[in-house]
Amino acid sequence: MTQTPPILHVDRLAKDYGSFRALDDITFDVAPGEFFTIVGPSGAGKTTLLRCLTGLLEPTSGTVEYQGQAVDGVPREFAVVLQDYSRSLLPWFSVEKNVALPLRAHGVAKAEVAERTARALADVGLRDAARKHPGELSGGMQQRAAIARAIAYQPEVLVMDEPFASVDAQTRADLEDLVLTLREEFGMTVVFVTHDVDESVYLSDRVAVVSKSPSRITTVVDIDLPRQRDQIATKELPRFSQLRSEVFAEIRNRVRDVDGPTSPEYVI
Amino acid sequence: MTQTPPILHVDRLAKDYGSFRALDDITFDVAPGEFFTIVGPSGAGKTTLLRCLTGLLEPTSGTVEYQGQAVDGVPREFAVVLQDYSRSLLPWFSVEKNVALPLRAHGVAKAEVAERTARALADVGLRDAARKHPGELSGGMQQRAAIARAIAYQPEVLVMDEPFASVDAQTRADLEDLVLTLREEFGMTVVFVTHDVDESVYLSDRVAVVSKSPSRITTVVDIDLPRQRDQIATKELPRFSQLRSEVFAEIRNRVRDVDGPTSPEYVI
Amino acid sequence: ACGGGGDELEAGEDGLTPLTVMQIPTMDAGPLHLGVEEGFFEEEGLDVEVRIAEAGSAIVPSVVNQESPIGYANAVSDLQAIDQGLDVKFVANCCAVGADPEADTSRIFVLPDSPITDVAGLAGANIAVNSVNNLGDLTIEVALENNGVDTSAIEFTPMNYSDMPAALERGDVDAIWSVEPHRAISESRGFTPLISNFVESFPDTTIGYYITSGAFAEANPEIVAAFQRAMDRANDFATENPDRVRETIVENLQIDPELVDQTNLHVFAPGLDEESVKVIAAAAVEHGMISEEPDYEEIFIRPGE
Amino acid sequence: MNRRTLLGLLGAVLALAVWWATSAGSTNVYYPPLPRVLDNLLEYWLGGAGTEHLLDSVRNLAVGLSIAVVLGIGLGMLVGQVRWLDRAVAPTFEFVRAIPATALIPFAMVLFGLGTSMKIFIIALGCFFPVLLNVIDGCRQLPATLLDTTRSFGITGWFRQLHVIAPAIYPRAAAGIRIAIPLALILVVTSEMTGSRIGIGFVLWTAQTSFNVVAVWGAILLLGILGLLLNLLFGAVERLTDRRYHRA
Amino acid sequence: MSALAPVPRESRLHAVALPAAVVVGLLALLQLLSVTDVLPRSYAPPPTEVLAALGRLLTGPALWTDIGSTLVGWAVSLGIAVVLGTAVGMLLGSVRWVQWLLTPVIEFLRPIPSIALIPLVVLTIGGARDGAVFLAAYAAVWQMLVAAIYATGAVDPVARDTARAYNLSRVQTIRWLTLPAMLPGLVTGVRIASATALIITVTSEILLGGVPGLGQGLNLARSAGDLTRMYAYVVVIGIVGLAINTVLTVLARRVVGWQGARR
Ligand SMILES: Nc1ncnc2c1ncn2[C@@H]1O[C@H](COP(=O)(O)OP(=O)(O)OP(=O)(O)O)[C@@H](O)[C@H]1O
Ligand SMILES: Nc1ncnc2c1ncn2[C@@H]1O[C@H](COP(=O)(O)OP(=O)(O)OP(=O)(O)O)[C@@H](O)[C@H]1O
Ligand SMILES: [Mg+2]
Ligand SMILES: [Mg+2]
Known about the structure:
The complex is a heteropentamer, with two copies of chain A, one copy of chain C, one copy of chain D and one copy of chain E. Chain A has helices at 46-53, 85-88, 95-105, 110-123, 139-152, 169-186, 197-203, 233-236, 238-259; strands at residues 8-17, 20-30, 35-39, 61-66, 69-70, 78-81, 157-161, 189-193, 206-210, 217-222.
């Protein structure tokens, strides 16, 4: 797909929880600067995949390489937004401190920490909530705080697990564009999980569809839309609708394929 | 709006967190059997409103009445799906037990508990995960477990706070229809919070739009679509698009109104 | 400092050698306090600090490790320590028993309405003592045997002296062993005295001694000698001034003055009474409290040697 | 045998080896060679006159500890959830808690007389507080979302106590019991310090006052072993209840 | 939403009057039992007499030096126990093989009564304050240790993942994540260990030689056969414990304020 060596290389990854196989034989590459999205039904194994990818979880078999090096422990250049955002914030620190924490941990100068923290908080619309504690935030605000922490970190690789699930449509659109802008600015690679097919097409360079567990990548859809995206213009492109339907069909297909039409997951 | 006396009556409700005013002068009624949805920007006060409505939180001023009685403590006929679903499941019980718990607490006969639990779990597509513990579920599965618990309870009033935030599009559609079906079957009243405008229009009889905090109800949109909804047919109706735009415009309006065009919340 | 070598004590700036002496909080301590107050120790070049410990079991190790180079323990405790191989030597007399039962500092009491009305009744009784396998049961058994009572069925229950009257009144024990000032307290409660077990077991015998560790004595012979000389003066002074003994006890042990007035005092004799040690050791062997009599050549720091 | 047991055994063997080696040639009367202590343990406590003392102590311990655990969990759940009650009794509890058992014994003797009930009282009282405090704090720190959930489904009364509160405080109660177990042994010994002619404590104190150091070490060894056994026992119980609560 | 559970507002009256009423009630009961001789009056002196003796003590200087010296002993031994117990507890709680290796040894040492160690301690450490501090720290450290081990289990796994995701160093993880999460458990541990440290400090003052403090005062009263004064000392000890706990509670509320209201 890309000529340059991949920044991430996932090779025949499998993960068992006890006797339960969550991931089965996952192989893909991510190119530097790419926006790579994973979609799939609930409980498929997307979170598991991200956790293996980032070194948070040890795979049962297979390997993950970051810039040619086997991943073992989260590489320093990664920032991760976990799905369970509300528990990923430390309740005893203010929002501001939560965002500043990774920067302080890595010895970034005080002034720069303050500046990057303030900017990230403003970016996600939490400027006024900087002094609040996580327990005093709404669900969506907590989620945005977790996002602010990741973008303030200015990672090489940004890994996000359903990061916009709890925010309203307008904020979501704004945050989508924010991530795209930051990617341009810092040349970040983004690995993203979402349930929103529109979102996946709008944001990505490629969308991987995973099947129900034991999860495999069934298709990777190339999003051949112009790189410069716009919430209105891009979504009005006929190609957008085509790709959207393609991904959607793929998800439905995989579900039907694997479980047949009477899968309890989808018959109510 | 409705001739019958309201099942829920909210009168000049206000809520302060310390010196911070989250809700300001909220007044509305919900008719028996109605599907009432609240939408609004992240951090507006929707969760706060639901918590006051259900008696989980004491309002600073104003009253909530359920069937003419002041609400003080959650009425027994309510079931609530909290936004922070992952922490609302008891980690020491299996999914099954979590779902069965409220029923057992109210002395429902064993056989019936088993039957209702099994049905609710099947309804949300968790039949195979019944024996798992919450920590072994994916985010979306946890959310569905919390939903299953509420529907197995067969409440008079079902209160749900962004209940489908973490599930994929297909599951979401299925769960939407599930809630509509159950409402018909049991004559439930539903109070619902969502960020998805399409969802709010598709599901509701009325949609209330709340402004940023201090939160007020700015408009209540009557959804005059035929009562029988269908994921494809209903959404293809021109009236659906109209209503959708109306709600969306209302949300945008309120945001602009209150904060002006340079609100940090929406300028990136 | 586990008793291997002796640390030499150095005099302080005032020319006095600081010396810690451990005592238990009983009336036995009178002469020692008087010696400090009257300056007998100072005149011998010693700056004595008296420290209070609950029992001999804490004092002996502190003597052995020379934290408190000199300490008090009753003869039975001293002999038991020596019997177990601890490096303990007798230094000076503390207190002795006289020959007049009425003046004894120790007594066995029963309730006035007790079925036990005489010494013979104590056979098979349950008697409270402050600790078992020690001076109390030894003197009681010897005293009773001297009175022709079979002691084999007697049971001894250990408890604090201050808890004994309550235990007696509640009937938890049949008799209690009280030493001053608890003897006076028991008397004032109207309990019936049966026997003065010190006088009737070991009359005219020294029962309490100051001890030191052999290692300390070897390293500091002058200090031990100085202590002996001062202690002799203190014992003499105490014998001549019983009122001063009572005063110093009231002050240092915070005992009610009226109560102290009703107490009997020990006999305070100067010197180091070796014969008494032998008498008690023989009885202790007989009653199974030590395995054998010690080597008497080894256990005394004889004054003037 | 799993790794855990193996490592534990290794640790125990290492510790014993160190004890053995350092005491082997010891001429210090207060630190007798381990074989002599082991002899005392085997001959006196396990096979000889000490067994009677051992059994008496163990019985008191079992009764006292059980009372403490039951009362501690029960009252702790009550006080932890009823705020005014906590307000009312907390100072009194804190007052009593600070008083050493040695200083309480005279009062306990007046209340109960000499003998078993006094000893059990001392043991139960001392062990009661760690359990109580842990349970109270556990109740305080229940996650808010969890409480909201139970409230929103109207889960109340016994059911709530049994199925929600109890499992939630369970780890804290277990921590309290773990603290109480060795405390119980200590209090057994303390309670036999005075007014008793039977029990491990009685033997220990008598040995101590007559400088029978080998017997003192023998009693210490015995107490340590009892502590280990009780701990293993509780570990098994914990795993069992854990399975009940967290797996069932 | 992880909002804090609402703290019911309480009047000051509630906070003071209620416990006071309980105390007064208990005292009245004791007085009644003692005066009617249900509890033998001469061995369980009525509260009024004990309070009178307490009054006499309060006016003298001796009691205050005793309190001061006991508090010093308590503070030093608690400090040692808390630091040591927390450090080792965290190590054991986070490195499983160390825990497995040491558990039997620790469980063996824990039930050994520190008072049974007195002769050994006197011999090796000395009988004065050093020995008392050692004994009290010995007794308290185990409680801190157990509390710390259990508290390490209180760290939310998602938060732990976050720390790993951002590559926080071990020290940073401990400072920012582990310790704060452990705090509620540690605070309980401190409160339990504090009482133990006080109890053993007083007990050592009774049993060891030459350690001035409330224990020695109590012991002198007991040896003098003055039960009323002895109970006055018991009351002082209880009040000191209560005061310490109140201070700790206020501190704890500060430290774990984010947890919501606590005792
Ligand atoms: N710790 C665990 N122990 C056992 N099973 C687990 C564990 N975590 C996840 N699973 C199982 O693995 C499967 C995949 O879970 P995962 O969280 O990766 O799904 P997901 O694709 O992220 O779903 P969602 O979109 O709902 O978040 C699920 O069936 C889940 O039950
Ligand atoms: N416990 C609390 N203490 C202080 N402030 C709070 C507390 N809970 C919520 N708030 C504030 O109240 C406002 C409304 O919060 P609420 O959770 O009701 O919003 P929401 O509409 O549910 O948002 P979202 O869609 O993001 O969940 C927010 O600004 C939040 O910071
Ligand atoms: Mg997931
Ligand atoms: Mg909300």
